[in-house]
Every structure is written in structure tokens, then in C-alpha cells.
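Priority: medium. Attachment 1 of 2:
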């Protein structure tokens, strides 16, 4: 039996009054005060099934919760916690894309619905302060991720170690070519020309900096990762680009000088 959540309330029946079930129903009821796009059918660990939104109201997504670990992980780590629960088998879905689309379409509604049920803002502030974007905090955060060793990233990135999204011009395009298309587009959008003085903030392993140097620009590229710095410098030397590529281990807040262009590729 599927229980339809309505703005007026839900039918009471004998079920375990588990905190997460109460929270899920609370969020669902508050969501229905807004204009829910699509619907989400949720099967709780108890077997109880509830639908957020209304069937036939656009595409329906499905989630099956195998344990309440999802609640703990999502509250503590947000979308990363959801991903970890999915990997661990705490949550299943026949169509992950449909679930993402449902949450993205109703992002603001979910944010409003969850406010005030759990008093976690203080914990969020503490967690954020531990990872604050100070000079030392930024360096530590980068090291925890990017200094795992270049060999790890070489397993699954393209040969130039581009870490941001590629630009696929057609479905059969190889990753390496799609990354090259992305670099070409960024260079065109930034208006990179020969003899330009360019600053790249967050250069990664140096692919964009090398690309711009190949166009004749003089590029100062900064990173906070020792591993990335070593790789970028070695590749620039190997390709004969050291005169136009200057890689520095430096925070963007410490940069001085004047530049014709500034480039920073966001990771999507």
C-alpha cells in the first residue's frame, strides 16, 4: 500500500514511530505546501511506502531505504553522505538520474521544509570552521584530496589530468578529445592571445596552463598541491614550455602583479 502525503495530514496507523520516518513525513508534508515538481516514491526500511508529490505530476522517481544510516550520513555530510549511503547499499533506486532530477527541481522546497526540525546549525558552523578557507585551512583541505598521489588520478583522468568536466561534441568522442575541446573553448572565451600575461588560479596538473602557453601566452599558474606542482613543472619541462609556464605553490590571496587575463576553471 502506498501512502499519499497530503498537505492536510496523513492517515495514522500503527507503525514504528522512528525518528527518520517522522522526519521524512514532516518534510513531505511541508513540501506539499509548495509546488512540487514531479514525485518521489519512498520505501522506508519498515516497508512503509510514501509518495512526495502526486502520481502523474511529471516523472516519478523511486528510492528504497534499506537502513536508517542514510539519515545520519545525509544530516552530517549532505550530498556526500547520500553518495556514501548509496555506495554502501543503504539506499537503492532503479533510476538514479530521476532521483537527482527530482531533488534538483525541488531544491528550494527541500531547504525550506527541513528548517527547524533538527537544530544542527551550530554543528554545521563548527564543522565549517574546522575546514575554513583560511590560508592554512585551504592548504590542508587541498592536501587531503589532491596529494593522494598522482598515480591514483592517472587511473581515471585523461592523459593531461584534466579534473574539470570535458566538453563532448558528440556521444562517441573520446575523453582526451573532449577535454581538448574544453580547453579550446575556455581559451576562446578568455580571449587568450600571443604574449598575453595570464594568471591561472587553481591550475591542477597544468593542462590549461600548458594549452595557453602553446598559444603563445606567458602563464603564471598557482596551486596549493605539492603533487600537482611537481607534475605540472615536470610536464612543462618535458614539452619545452618552461619559458612560458611558471608554476607556483601559492594561495591566490598572496598573488601580486598585473595580468592581461585571469583564468580559473570551476570543477563541475
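Attachment 2 of 2:
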Amino acid at each position: 500500500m502506498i501512502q499519499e502525503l497530503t498537505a492536510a495530514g496523513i492517515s495514522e496507523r500503527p507503525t514504528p514511530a522512528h525518528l527518520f520516518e517522522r522526519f521524512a513525513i514532516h518534510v513531505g508534508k511541508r513540501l506539499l505546501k509548495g509546488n512540487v515538481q514531479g514525485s518521489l516514491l519512498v520505501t522506508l526500511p519498515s516497508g512503509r511506502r510514501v509518495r512526495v508529490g502526486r502520481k502523474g505530476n511529471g516523472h516519478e522517481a523511486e528510492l528504497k531505504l534499506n537502513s536508517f544510516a542514510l539519515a545520519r550520513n545525509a544530516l552530517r555530510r549532505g550530498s556526500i553522505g547520500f553518495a556514501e549511503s548509496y555506495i554502501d547499499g543503504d539506499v537503492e533506486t532503479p533510476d538514479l538520474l530521476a532521483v537527482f532530477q527530482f531533488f534538483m527541481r525541488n531544491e528550494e522546497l527541500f531547504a525550506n521544509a527541513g528548517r527547524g526540525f533538527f537544530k544542527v546549525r551550530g554543528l554545521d558552523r563548527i564543522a565549517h570552521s574546522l575546514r575554513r578557507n583560511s590560508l592554512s585551512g585551504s592548504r590542508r583541505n587541498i592536501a587531503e584530496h589532491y596529494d593522494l598521489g598522482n598515480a591514483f588520478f592517472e587511473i581515471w583522468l585523461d592523459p593531461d589530468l584534466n579534473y574539470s568536466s570535458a566538453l563532448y561534441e558528440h556521444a562517441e568522442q573520446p575523453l582526451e578529445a573532449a577535454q581538448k575541446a574544453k580547453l579550446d573553448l575556455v581559451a576562446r572565451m578568455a580571449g587568450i592571445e600571443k604574449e598575453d600575461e595570464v594568471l591561472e588560479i587553481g591550475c591542477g596538473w597544468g593542462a590549461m596552463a600548458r594549452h595557453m602557453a602553446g598559444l603563445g601566452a606567458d602563464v603564471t599558474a598557482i596551486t596549493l598541491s605539492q603533487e600537482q606542482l611537481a607534475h605540472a613543472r615536470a610536464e612543462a619541462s618535458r614539452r619545452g614550455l618552461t619559458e612560458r609556464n611558471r608554476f607556483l605553490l601559492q594561495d591566490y590571496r598572496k598573488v601580486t602583479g598585473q595580468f592581461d587575463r585571469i583564468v580559473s576553471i570551476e570543477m563541475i
